[in-house]
Amino acid sequence: MTPNTMTTDNFSLLDNLAIELPSWAFGNSGTRFKVFGTPGTPRTVEEKIADAATVNRLTGLAPSVALHIPWDRVDDYAALGRFAADQGVALGTINSNTFQDDEYKFGSLTHTDKTVRQKAIDHHLECIEIMGQTGSQDLKIWLADGTNYPGQGDIRGRQDRLAESLATIYQHIGEDQRLVLEYKFFEPAMYMTDVPDWGTSYAQVTALGERAAVCLDTGHHAPGTNIEFIVAQLLRLGKLGSFDFNSRFYADDDLIVGAADPFQLFRIMFEVIRGGGLDADSTVALMLDQCHNVEEKIPGQIRSVLNVQEMTARALLVDTDALTAAQEAGDVLGANGIFMDAFYTDVRPMLAERRAAKGLPADPMRAYAESGYAESIAAVRVGGTQSSWGA
Amino acid sequence: MTPNTMTTDNFSLLDNLAIELPSWAFGNSGTRFKVFGTPGTPRTVEEKIADAATVNRLTGLAPSVALHIPWDRVDDYAALGRFAADQGVALGTINSNTFQDDEYKFGSLTHTDKTVRQKAIDHHLECIEIMGQTGSQDLKIWLADGTNYPGQGDIRGRQDRLAESLATIYQHIGEDQRLVLEYKFFEPAMYMTDVPDWGTSYAQVTALGERAAVCLDTGHHAPGTNIEFIVAQLLRLGKLGSFDFNSRFYADDDLIVGAADPFQLFRIMFEVIRGGGLDADSTVALMLDQCHNVEEKIPGQIRSVLNVQEMTARALLVDTDALTAAQEAGDVLGANGIFMDAFYTDVRPMLAERRAAKGLPADPMRAYAESGYAESIAAVRVGGTQSSWGA
Amino acid sequence: MTPNTMTTDNFSLLDNLAIELPSWAFGNSGTRFKVFGTPGTPRTVEEKIADAATVNRLTGLAPSVALHIPWDRVDDYAALGRFAADQGVALGTINSNTFQDDEYKFGSLTHTDKTVRQKAIDHHLECIEIMGQTGSQDLKIWLADGTNYPGQGDIRGRQDRLAESLATIYQHIGEDQRLVLEYKFFEPAMYMTDVPDWGTSYAQVTALGERAAVCLDTGHHAPGTNIEFIVAQLLRLGKLGSFDFNSRFYADDDLIVGAADPFQLFRIMFEVIRGGGLDADSTVALMLDQCHNVEEKIPGQIRSVLNVQEMTARALLVDTDALTAAQEAGDVLGANGIFMDAFYTDVRPMLAERRAAKGLPADPMRAYAESGYAESIAAVRVGGTQSSWGA
Amino acid sequence: MTPNTMTTDNFSLLDNLAIELPSWAFGNSGTRFKVFGTPGTPRTVEEKIADAATVNRLTGLAPSVALHIPWDRVDDYAALGRFAADQGVALGTINSNTFQDDEYKFGSLTHTDKTVRQKAIDHHLECIEIMGQTGSQDLKIWLADGTNYPGQGDIRGRQDRLAESLATIYQHIGEDQRLVLEYKFFEPAMYMTDVPDWGTSYAQVTALGERAAVCLDTGHHAPGTNIEFIVAQLLRLGKLGSFDFNSRFYADDDLIVGAADPFQLFRIMFEVIRGGGLDADSTVALMLDQCHNVEEKIPGQIRSVLNVQEMTARALLVDTDALTAAQEAGDVLGANGIFMDAFYTDVRPMLAERRAAKGLPADPMRAYAESGYAESIAAVRVGGTQSSWGA
Predict the structure, then answer these.
(1) Distance between CA atoms of D256 and A164, rounded to whole angstroms?
(2) Is residue C260 within 8 Å of A264, Cβ to Cβ?
(3) Which of B212, C197, D38, D287 qualifies as a FRET site for A200, CA 20 to 30 Å off?
(4) Chains linked to B by 3 or more Cβ pairs within 8 Å
(5) What is the 3-state secondary structure (H, E, C) of chain A?
(6) Domain-embedded: residue A83
(7) What's the CA gap between D184 and D7, in Å, rounded?
(8) Minimal Cα–Cα distance from D382 to chain B, Å?
């Protein structure tokens, strides 16, 4: 019953925690029924970066920003990188987009028409070129490709074309770059999705080579899926490239990570740690991918990175020696009890102290609320077109 | 193994089959990722009605069109009714919309703010007024109300306010009118939906009175839900007001009814028949509610009503006397075999003959393709704004 | 960030927490693949009661024991009651069993054969008679009735027969007794279950009368179902009779309550409190219904009642005034933050103090481990047949 | 609308259809709540084989019988093989069992205790030895290994031990033999299953070598999983070893294949054909794995193989040239229509003719009912212990 205490060793792992923010989290998003706008929403990529930098300033947890092409296309990426650096953040993962052009209605990298496939491939080559200019390491590919009706597409043929298209793209991935392939159970395709599960992503990236890996989005699984198992498995196989963090009750709800099931996030982070994903030499990239449909966006991002930090801290509290002993003794309740003891411990006071010691606000949510930033951007960002998934 | 043959009695029930088409099925729809436009998409409610009338002309199955307010708001509903009558169809159910105004971000009939609730109530009173002008019988209420995060709303209080708002609306429902309350498992709310299941809709409409009933949308259930059970139960309780037909593999996919699981549609229609829902005096209204995201819209609607007809015809083939005998004998495989025998019978030739006898095209899909209608509307409907969920 | 503190008021509600233990939790249970036996498993109902009393002695949370007929049938229930009282516990809910006789293969209260229905009705009358002798208040009915194949049974007819059978049983329910009807999504029936959801149970018990209510088993829902919503709704409708607590990742896993998703248990207890379910005059009965397939049984029950207590304590920490204010202000993150603040607070030290103040062990799990009880029953309970679902 | 006609080519593929029957399908099975016995249930493996041979005699579809060790352990496998041959069937897949010994409570091939792992490995070596004597090609491994509570086991460590154990077993697999590894979403483990998905099975068998492949049980997936996609993917990867056919509405319901969703079975068989799984040189083995809990067992098996045959025949009717053309034209409804046209065609008369031409009964279900076999075994098989999962 005595709560665990974080050891110095564990603290040092917590220092490795860095969570990339997606630029599009600061724009408007919503459901197919309605997208609500809010005052102060960024109109430009620079404004998105400024918002992301605010999250990092208050939390010390979010040192980089992912871009989405074409939503974040600019003329001068070097200048954009300098702008970001001035704000204290780096440019991160480049996300491609092959789901909003009319040509992609029936697929992109999997399309039966070679012309459309080439267009989609070329888009990825553009992304790789941008990566060179931004210094980004990862090209993240999430495909909307799939079909809505049985018979609409040739499942097998689409998979073969996917492999061919990916191979072409992979040839352009630089020595220090990676291609990460995201999977998703369903949506927007309603019958068959071309990369629906980790097995498919794993099989595809394994065929590509060492610089290709899987991206695990925590909201992209069938009901009941044990996600921490997949985390453990992909780490074991050396193919867990990155995370897209969010949470869900039903489908790809894209809620704030940890909001729907904090215990699940705890279990996931426990397996990340167990598999070396927080080690200094880890190549697992952590990123948020969420939609703040009804809540404020910047504090939504702050809440998100704090949730990851809190659940990581709790996971670091697990007394792994005692756990192993209980597991080997077949002591089910003992092992579960050791595990839960860490989860049930309130780490917030410890984390607040830790923040204060680093010159960060003890309570980043309150600090943001009191900062006047929200009022300031609402006053300044008037006119123009608020960013959303469409722009 | 000898296939059943439709008896004269069964044929007469098939004549009672009438499926209302939603005006919005002819506009563009899509996912939160992309809405694809297509040539010939209606710009006005009159063009939607013309398309719906085309479906009815070719199938004889779709004698009425449901309207959505405000999407289908016009100045003169009497004139709209005459326009529809000229096209051979009637105006049907009026569907309200309380999910696209900014005020409804946190609820409509359930909102904590009385002003917002009153606005939503007033919208429904406008709908009832329109019903008077169109001669519509049913006011259908589907609410997007709900919350995305635990703690965001007071579940219990929202339910009480819902009851109060519905009671106010119900007072204005005329003697020959009905209020039908649709339920939905989730979306757009991601944590808690205020009318998430048939039990909630049933409890709410029962509290209202005799002219309130449940609307069952076949895509609005949790994974694995036995929908035909709910059909049987609501018919038994006298509270099955209407159907929104569509099909799904995952969530509220809004695919063509019968496309995902024709056997399920067969089972549903079997219970409809079993419970008297196709009888001459039945008050169960059948309607489509689908999204033709990637397929052509008019043939999509034709395919849909044909699917309902085909599965209804198969369901009518069940030898119910033999089935009852097998059930009472505890002959599991025998009973199942009798049931499946009807499902496995190809009714299409019979239905084609029946159509021809009524002066309808034997193959409505082919008749549409050869009619030149698609080409004609693509040529004529140029300029303007294509209808979608937004307009 | 400042953790809430439990107010005196809240503490007093915590004193109302009483969780009934099922006698069968102390017997062996398992899956269809294997039932593992363990040393010390009770052979008699008296030994089960002794184990349950041990849980109560160490936790002060479990003052009564539910019986299952015929598993716990004895000749002299008055004597059994005295035995229980000597152990410090009372006899509670009587659970009927209509799923293990060969006659029930195709149903019990819903069977097409009147003789079988009467046998099942008579069994319930016997249970009511036992209730008179044990002073039990609740007759709990869970039915395995259902079908495995489409067509096997007449869904509608079965529902009508269920209503008739229940009405007959209800006539024998005494003035101070209740009939509680449990629902279950599926299992052992694999296609159609006759009481599959709360709506069906609600409709059936409402038809019976005031002394009939719904039993909500937390593991008996479709994937993704929002259980706290159902809790709130049934409390609102005045028909939440009782809980069967357990937890699940997949189906009716019957794991220790709170083990799979402690946050869900917190949300459920919040709605119980919100709806008056912990008030002094509440008629909501709390009970465990779990299977300790691989873990030790007695500490499994201790862990379970502690989990309910801990999550109830956390739920009592919610600052409801602040929560209401945030909800009314549309402050999504603020409201969620207030809610989560309570959940994230470690209540264990407070509860340990509270226990000590009442003369209970501060750490019941440790107290049990050190008590020697497990070793004692393993030594004494040798020979005979270990209790299980079969006996 | 003109129904397709089976071409000679397609017929020849239908001749390749051979479905292995599991010996245990003829024994009693059930749920954790109750196992119902029936007159005539086999007491010995010979009686099981006799029943299986009856299915084959009436359908011509089931030329082999899978054995389960230890349930079907005999002293003289050569004699057993001769007995089977006399009945017109061969002995097929050997299924191991590491889920019913007390030592396996916490795992078998994944257990932390080397002694238990070795015991489980040795059991598989015994199975391989039996394969040598029976001439069986496949060793099928389904593991119940997993955990019920978070923290109970080390997910990663268990996976590593699984790999090591499998590698040891694989070393003994002969040149003409295969190891097929089955995956299952959950049950009997309720939190974490060690081989929960096709990705895990694929990664494990790929590490073993060419003579290891995946077994796909159609009932072992998360809700909503697109199984035909997995079929297509595994065929593409060359790792689809075998099928365990059954169907389900909820979990691993083990219902008659095709009973829950015949359209899904059609889609699965379409992908089997598409990927060469019915070709003469195919190495994909088809097998049933079902539980006849409430229905008669022998006709249950007959119904099952007929369902596979019927859906295969329908799948062979798909006009693949027209389908490809429609797919390439982006004609969603056209492609779906071609696909559905085949599914909606009643193939039963054609198959009856085909059977008659081969000297088989046109209606195997009726032929069985009229054969007197059921009455005969009920009369003869008196005394002894009916076979079940336990023996």
Answers:
(1) 39
(2) no
(3) D287
(4) A, C, D
(5) CCCCCCCHHHHHHHCCCCEEEEHHHHCECECCCCECCCCCCCCCHHHHHHHHHHHHHHHCCCCEEEEECCCCCCCCHHHHHHHHHHHCCEEEEEECCCCCCHHHHHCCCCCCCHHHHHHHHHHHHHHHHHHHHHCCCEEEECCCCEECCCCCCCHHHHHHHHHHHHHHHHCCCCCCCEEEEECCCCCCCCCEECCCCHHHHHHHHHHHCCCEEEEEECCCCCCCCCHHHHHHHHHHCCCEEEEEECECCCCCCCECCCCCCHHHHHHHHHHHHHCCCCCCCCCCEEEECCCCCCCCHHHHHHHHHHHHHHHHHHHHCCCHHHHHHHHHCCCHHHHHHHHHHHHHCCCHHHHHHHHHHCCCCCCHHHHHHHHCHHHHHHHHCCCCCCCECCC
(6) yes
(7) 37
(8) 23
Whether the CB of B389 is below 8 Å from some CB of chain A: the reply is: yes
Nearest CA distance, A231 vs chain C (angstrom): 17
Which residue is it, tokens 């004139």? B79
Domain of residue B102, residue span? 18-313+360-380
- Which residues of chain A lie closer than 8 angstroms to B32, CB-CB? 29-32, 188, 389
Q: Residue B308's pLDDT is what?
A: 98
d(CA A45, CA A67): 9
Put simply, the answer to whether B151 touches C323 (Cβ < 8 Å) is yes
Q: Chain A residues with CB inside 8 Å of D114's CB?
A: none
Instruction: Count how many pairs of residues, chain B against chain C, have C-beta atoms within 8 Å.
Output: 150
Write down the ipTM of this complex. 0.97
User: Residue A9: its pLDDT value, please?
Assistant: 63
Residue D273's CATH number: 3.20.20.150
Which chains have 3+ CB pairs within 8 A of C?
A, B, D
**In this structure, are strands B285-288 and B240-245 parallel, antiparallel, or unpaired?**
parallel
Asked whether residue C333 is assigned to any structural domain, the reply reads no
Contact between residue A218 and residue B153 where contact means Cβ atoms under 8 Å apart: no
Q: Once rounded to an integer, what is the mean pLDDT over residues B360-383?
A: 97
Question: Any idea how long chain C is?
Answer: 391
Is A366's CB within 8 Å of C1's CB?
yes
Contacts of A332 in chain C (CB under 8 A): 294-296
pLDDT at B90 over 60: yes
The verdict on a CB contact (< 8 Å) between C223 and B222 is yes
Quick check: A259 and B30 CB within 8 A? no
Is the residue at C332 inside a domain?
A: no
Q: Does residue C388 sit within a domain?
A: no
If chain C, 391 residues long, is cut into consecutive pieces of 10 residues, what is the mean pLDDT of each piece? 50 92 97 95 98 98 98 97 98 97 97 98 98 97 98 98 98 98 98 98 98 98 98 98 98 97 98 96 97 97 98 97 98 98 97 96 98 98 91 47
Residues in B closer than 8 angstroms to A187, CB to CB, are 31, 33, 250-251
Interface contact C363, partner A, CB < 8 A: yes
Chain C segment 257-286 residues within 8 A of D by beta carbon are: 259-260
Q: Which residues of A103-120 are buried (b: 16+ CB within 10 A; e: fewer)?
A: ebbbbbbbbbeeebbebb
Chain D contact set for A203 (CB, 8 A): 199, 202, 233, 237
Nearest to C106 among B198, B232, B330 (CB): B330
pLDDT score, position B389: 87
One-letter identity of residue A93: T
Q: Which of D150, D200, D339 sits opposite A336 (nearest CB)?
A: D150
**How many Å apart are CA C212 and CA C179, to the nearest integer?**
5
Domain count, chain D: 1
Of A303, A307, A362, A373, nearest to A25 by C-alpha is A303
Q: C376 — contact with chain A (CB < 8 Å)? A: no
**Sorting pLDDT into bands at 50, 70 and 90, what band is D3?**
very low
Nearest CA in chain C to B225: C222
